[in-house]
Amino acid sequence: MLTLTIDIGVTLMMRLLILITLSLLMTLPVLAANTTGIGVVDMQQVLEQSKLGKRLQEQLRQEFEPKTRQFAEEEKEIQALRQAFERDKALMSKDQAEKQEKQIVARIEAYQKKTQPLQQELVKVQQTKGREIVTPAREAVNTIAKKKKLALVIERGQAGMLYLDPAADITAEVIEELDTRTK
User: Fold this and answer.
1) Which whole-number Å values give the CA distances from 47 to 78, 104, 126, 144, in the listed order?
2) Segment-wise mean pLDDT, segments of 10 residues, the chain, 183 residues
């Protein structure tokens, strides 16, 4: 008799589990109907074409362009030395060629040591400025995704994306939304 009670209890539990599963399966299509698909956004394009992105890029340019001008001249000089060396190398003795090549390499190394702090500073400032646009851009993506009832938004630059239906690209709408939010 005890086994009969256990069997009835298991049977009732199984029926209850099946009923719950069936009811969930029936409601999932209704829930899925609230979201219609997948959107794709090119965040690089958002950064380059939005008003906020352009403003931040201009700030970076104004801050770092004067600092990089002095290095640009030196870079041109080094490039000219390399070209002259490549052009005249065949006319030089082996010792002369080695000596001049060492001089050019030493000049390049010195140039790199001088520019390294500026490059590091630029990376830090870019990261800081990048944070200033990431939050409003994400909010714009969320707004557009909710308006379009998208279940998922993927960043276009992600590796592995082989095909994109142009209708799924919401980049222009995100830029417009971001511009509206950050006047």
Assistant:
1) 34, 38, 12, 17
2) 42 54 47 65 87 89 84 88 90 90 92 89 86 88 90 76 75 88 77
